[in-house]
Structures are given as C-alpha cells and as structure tokens.
Amino acid sequence: MNIKNMSLSFIEARRYSKQSKPMNIRIDHNSTVTLFTATSKEEAQVEFEYTASYGPLGLIKFGGNLIYEGKDAEEVAKKWQETKNMPNEVASHIHTAIMHFCLPEAVMVSRDLRLPPPIPMPQVKFEQQPKGKKGRYSPEVV
Q: Could you tell me which residues come within 8 angstroms of residue 120 by beta carbon, excluding any fewer than 6 positions away?
C-alpha cells in the first residue's frame, strides 16, 4: 500500500473576523475523500479535501489528489463508489497521508492570514532545581 504523487488543486482561505485580541479558539481538522477511481488493477486516483476550521474566526481549505497503489486498489475503488466507504486500514493510510501533506501548508497559509497555526505549539517550562543542588537550568518542552 503506497501513496504517491500528492498535489493540491485549489486553496481557499478566509479570515472572517478582524479581531486581534488573543482568544481561545477551537481548530477542527477534517479530511474527506471526494472521489476514488481505479486507473488500473493496482492503482487508483483519489481526490480529497482538507479543512481547518477556526469557527467564527476563519477557514483554510485545500483540495487535491493522490495516487493510491495497492493490490486491492480496484476492489477498494469499486466498494467506495458503491458505498462511499473503504476498509479501515486503507482509510487510515490515506487520511494520515492527507493530514501530513496538508498540515504544513495550512501552517504557512495561517501565518499569512494572521490566524493561529493549526497545530498545538509546544510550551516551554523552566523547572527550578531544589535548593542545595547545583545544576543547570534548561528548558523542558512539553
């Protein structure tokens, strides 16, 4: 099972609010397979959409395609066209690839729109050594 030739076909990004004060915002991620077509017995063309929704603050949406390679590609494509469903293992593999491909792109677009990055940023904490112990202070990334 391989994923190859991932590419984007459209980018839609909007900021709805000009609110500049910091606020807690929930960022929802969603990836959807919109088309799954067999091109040969062991290869299929998959069209997808990825969305990062910032609720009332904004939206980032990508559309693209990829090629799925697997011995069962033709069967999976046929099942998807009939039921809009695919085996869990294949679905997990495809959606993980979509997220890994689109998330870095979404981070760059979010910067341009001045939206929070759609990934949790690490927090830096400094822990103090108990008195009497000599040691170095170093940041701990959580």
A: none
Rounded to two decimals, what is the model's pTM? 0.80
Give CA–CA dist 62/81, Å, rounded: 22
Separation of alpha carbons 130 and 132, rounded Å: 6
85 vs 102: CA distance, rounded Å: 22
Number of Cβ within 10 Å of residue 30's Cβ equals 12
Contact present, 87 and 31 (Cβ < 8 Å) = no
| pLDDT tens, residue by residue, 106-128 | 999 999 999 989 987 666 666 66
Q: For residue 126, what are the CA distances in angstroms to 132, 134, 136, 140, 142?
A: 18, 15, 11, 6, 11
For 97, half-sphere exposure in the C-beta direction (CA atoms, 13 angstrom radius) is: 23
Q: What is the pLDDT of residues 15-66, one digit of tens each?
A: 998 876 667 888 999 999 999 999 999 999 999 999 999 988 999 999 999 9
Q: Which domains does the chain have, with CATH numbers?
A: 2-141 (3.10.420)
Query: How many CB atoms within 10 Å of residue 106?
Result: 24
